[in-house]
Amino acid sequence: xxxxxxxxxxxxxxxxxxxxxxxxxxxxxxxxxxxxxxxxxxxxxxxxxxxxxxxxxxxxxxxxxxxxxxxxxxxxxxxxxxxxxxxxxxxxxxxxxxxxxxxxxxxxxxxxxxxxxxxxxxxxxxxxxxxxxxxxxxx
Length: 139
Fold this sequence. Notes:
The protein is built from one helix and nine strands; from the N terminus they run αβββββββββ. By secondary structure, the protein is mostly beta strands. A seven-stranded antiparallel β-sheet has the order 8-7-6-3-2-1-9, covered by helices on one side. The radius of gyration is 16 Å and the shape is globular. It starts with 7 loop residues before the first helix and ends in an 11-residue tail after the last strand.
């Protein structure tokens, strides 16, 4: 389903598709996209072919961040990131989508349901491959 809310930049980050054979590595960056703000994360675990089900489960943890520019309330923001190994782990599940341009791997937020004994749709929108923090100054 097409997302039509929030900032254009965040929709671009979220809709990142990867080649089907792409491998996410522990230590790579991730970004949570809210309405127009962004928060940095670090990949802390990768389980390929989870329980022989044919998909990956990626664990991510929120990073600590510190603004290092002196631009005040501004669109131009620069941050320093530090992984936080004490942060709670959130999970992303891979799936393959077919488009007119070929097959791509995407990652969506999931939570483990103890009652159902399976992964269920979670909350949040993430992009993988880079860390980004942005605080929209218009709010």
